[in-house]
Amino acid sequence: MPIDLFHVDAFTPRAFAGNPAAVCLCPEAPEPGWMQQVAAEMNLSETSFVVPRADGFDLRWFTPTVEVELCGHATLAAAHTLWESGRLAAGSRARFHTLSGVLTAAKAGDWIELDFPATPVATVTTVPPALVAGLGVRALSIGKSRFDFVVEVATAAEVSEARPDLAALRQVDSRGVILTGPGEPPYDMVSRVFAPGFGIDEDPVTGSAHCALGPFWGERLGKQELLAYQASARGGVLRIVLAGERVKLYGQAVTTTRGLLMV
User: Fold this and answer.
1) Out of 46, 113, 152, 202, which one is annotated catalytic?
2) Domain 122-244 sits in which CATH superfamily?
3) Which residue in 30, 36, 96, 251 has the most C-beta neighbors within 10 A?
4) CB of 188 within 8 A of CB of 228?
């Protein structure tokens, strides 16, 4: 039976920017091995699989090589697709059951609000040698969230100009490495995210990384609301509102392709 397949650029108001995600709207739960094969075929940083249930939707995310526990841009893309395709009424909140618990999405004007768990950054006592060698930057601090190492540098230029050794970063035992620094107006922060061990050399825009970056920069800047820019080649913008143990992420999305998955 053909499955509706969408290609959505997330965390951007225009096509061919932000982070592309594939969204598969499945009538019933597929086998994990099949989902991994589809994600490898799509060859995007994440492919999301959405399955209806009585109280919302089951949602799983796969990179080309592994399943992940939390993904922001593919959740944004999934919610956008449900509303745009008419599977969910425009005024309804999307409710997703995931490996990170229940996540919700709601329309907020031209933006979409994601309600995600905060993943605060803790100081690390032992820094993997491959992390320092791989980034090749002068770190002001190094910490770790639930998923990623977080490396802070002094300027936005150091973030955008970094040329990491991906082979070295592939040896780091974490989902990914977040490189971050203070933003230049109008942005409060800037970042880049590398996850070569999960099949993603550089992620264009990473919603889940901002579950850590929001609390990290919120504490430093004394702010509860922040504007973030992810300085990949495609680039992406996120609004962040801190809400205790939760983080509200706001982004935009554009559908670029709609088709059928025939296999």
Assistant:
1) 46
2) Diaminopimelate Epimerase; Chain A, domain 1 (3.10.310.10)
3) 251
4) yes
